[in-house]
Task: inverse folding
């Protein structure tokens, strides 16, 4: 097969007619240029692949002239074959004269032609065939021929990589290695980067090891591209071993490399691994940069280590490393998540005083913090400020505001904001719908909540677990358990897994209606699914058993809670005190009341009324 292909592409002996046509075309090109050939249709009627080859190989023609002729033929007469492309590339490479084609232009033209060879399916042939043609196009010394082949295949390797033709690129690489041609580390870097961007981390790893096997020069940049891919995939141990192996070959990790590991360990919630990397950096004398501190602050914030994030921020200041907007955004977000809104606002002012311009993420973090604190006026002020600076609201900020208004009982304001958002061309997502539906439920506007969720589905937004749970809760509160169970089944059929909140809605509904058999069954079911009952689960069951007059069962559930690591709240105590009071067990009720106060839980007026009532019941 390969022999046939080589024969098909080999140079055929030129006929006298072809040589004469080529001579006349060359003469015309020298005197008048390519465009003048338009007036010579009879001459061009004899144009064929061999003639084009002869013209391009004419040493009296400059590279620029040949290029004009090449594109003239391509545009007006016939598509050049592979030999023509290689001849033209060879001409550009061998061009030494300082003509109009400057060096950078010449390289760009070579790359453009090689790119055409790579992406044109009609020119697709095995690398060995291309090699034969390239070798035949260079009638110089072996040294010059090898240099041209190195340059040609290096460009071809890069072009294949840029076009995500990874198999073809690897074929070129292996051919160069076999022929002993120089393998450029920068080209290998481009190939690794293309693989990494294509998500082919395994191929990246295999190629890197091949580079090591062939003793191709490896730099920390190639190493870091691979390690970043491994760390993002969670394979930090494989990355660590590779880093150690590379170190034995003189390739030392830099701060970018270590940052990849820090990010990888945080992704796995492995704080011990983060500390190991920091110690290793200190040992190797690699200083942390702004990115390192940003990763640390963001990472510690995400795992709830607020004080640790603040310590890192303070350390950064001590070392006089200027914090950028990303660092400030991370530490502001960290403080907002932990409820330290005043501290977050102070940091925001500090940042702007330094001349740093907050971005949408910075405002988003701060708006989230004030919304969480119920400070909706402050949230609106921040919105006005960011809009005055030309920063428009994105879907995340809209959702944050909608949720904030709903949590503050201002559902109508949330609905207004949803209208504004959609008028701006932003579609409401399931999060926005869930927030508003939940807010409506809290205001006992259940019919509106149901209507909103039905409208959401009609508009093509798929409900999630929270959407189904809200609907189940509404039906349970209405006493419509047939619909509640139907929605529960539909939820599972559509791949949404019920969570503890879903089960709590059902248990609470059945408990309040006195159907304890079904409530107990649901508790067993959730435990069999691996879910853990929480305080709300137990409180609903205790309340239900008390309503049903089964106070002993309620007490048993109450005593079970500490063994599960659960602390009863004021509602739990009130439910049980109510149950004990109703059956005349005033001593047990008062004992529970004392225990409640010892635990630091303040009883409300309901508890006092129940206790007084229990005394009357006892006297009667």
Result:
């Amino acid at each position: 097969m390969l022999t046939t292909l080589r024969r098909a592409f080999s140079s055929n002996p030129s006929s006298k007619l072809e040589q004469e046509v080529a001579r006349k075309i060359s003469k015309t090109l020298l005197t008048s240029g390519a465009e003048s050939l338009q007036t010579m249709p009879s001459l061009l009627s004899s144009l064929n692949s061999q003639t084009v080859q002869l013209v391009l190989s004419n040493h009296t023609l400059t590279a620029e002239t040949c290029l004009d002729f090449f594109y003239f033929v391509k545009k007006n007469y016939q598509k050049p074959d592979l030999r023509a492309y290689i001849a033209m590339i060879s001409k550009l490479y061998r061009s030494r004269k300082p003509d109009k084609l400057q060096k950078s232009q010449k390289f760009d033209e070579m790359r453009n032609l090689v790119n055409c060879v790579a992406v044109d399916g009609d020119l697709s042939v095995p690398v060995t065939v291309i090699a034969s043609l390239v070798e035949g196009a260079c009638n110089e010394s072996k040294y010059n021929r090898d240099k041209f082949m190195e340059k040609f295949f290096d460009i071809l390797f890069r072009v294949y990589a840029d076009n995500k033709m990874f198999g073809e690129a690897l074929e070129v690489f292996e051919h160069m290695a076999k022929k002993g041609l120089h393998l450029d580390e920068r080209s290998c870097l481009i190939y690794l980067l293309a693989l990494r961007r294509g998500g082919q981390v395994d191929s990246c790893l295999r190629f890197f090891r091949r580079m090591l096997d062939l003793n191709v020069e490896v730099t920390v940049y190639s190493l870091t591209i691979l390690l970043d891919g491994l760390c993002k995939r969670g394979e930090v141990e494989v990355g660590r071993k590779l880093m150690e192996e590379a170190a034995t070959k003189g390739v030392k990790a830099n701060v970018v490399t270590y940052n990849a590991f820090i990010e990888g360990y945080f992704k796995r919630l492995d704080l011990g691994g983060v500390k190991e990397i920091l110690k290793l950096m200190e040992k190797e004398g690699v200083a942390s940069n702004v990115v390192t501190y940003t990763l640390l602050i963001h990472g510690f914030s995400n795992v709830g280590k607020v004080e640790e994030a603040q310590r890192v921020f303070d350390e950064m200041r001590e070392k006089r490393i200027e914090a950028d907007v990303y660092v400030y955004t991370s530490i502001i977000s960290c403080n907002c998540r932990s409820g330290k809104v005043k501290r977050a606002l102070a940091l925001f002012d500090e940042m702007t005083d330094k001349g740093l311009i907050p971005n949408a993420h910075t405002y988003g973090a701060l708006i989230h913090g004030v919304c969480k604190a119920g400070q909706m006026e402050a949230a609106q002020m921040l919105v006005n400020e960011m809009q005055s600076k030309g920063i428009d609201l994105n879907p995340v900020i809209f959702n944050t505001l909608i949720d904030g208004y709903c949590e503050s009982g201002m559902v109508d304001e949330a609905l207004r904001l949803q209208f504004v958002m959609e008028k701006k061309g932003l579609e409401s997502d399931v999060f926005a719908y869930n927030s508003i539906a939940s807010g409506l439920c809290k205001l006992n506007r259940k019919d509106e909540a149901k209507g909103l969720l039905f409208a959401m589905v009609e508009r093509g937004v798929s409900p999630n677990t929270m959407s189904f749970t809200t609907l189940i809760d509404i039906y349970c509160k209405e006493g419509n358990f047939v619909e509640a169970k139907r929605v529960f089944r539909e939820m599972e059929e559509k791949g949404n897994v019920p969570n503890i909140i879903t089960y709590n809605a059902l248990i609470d509904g059945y408990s309040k209606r006195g159907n304890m058999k079904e409530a107990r069954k649901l508790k067993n079911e959730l435990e069999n699914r691996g879910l853990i009952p929480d305080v709300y689960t137990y409180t609903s069951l205790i309340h239900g058993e008390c309503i049903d007059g089964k106070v002993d069962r309620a007490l048993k559930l109450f005593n079970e809670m500490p063994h599960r690591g659960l602390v009863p709240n004021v509602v739990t105590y009130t439910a049980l005190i109510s149950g004990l009071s109703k059956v005349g067990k005033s001593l047990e009720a008062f004992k529970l009341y004392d225990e409640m106060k010892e635990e630091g839980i303040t009883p409300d007026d309901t508890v006092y009324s129940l206790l007084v009532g229990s005394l009357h019941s006892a006297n009667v």
User: Anything to note?
Assistant: Residues 1-11, 616-620 have pLDDT under 50 and may be disordered. Residues 142-162 form the longest helix (21 residues). The CA atoms of residues 3 and 129 lie 9 Å apart. The radius of gyration is 37 Å.
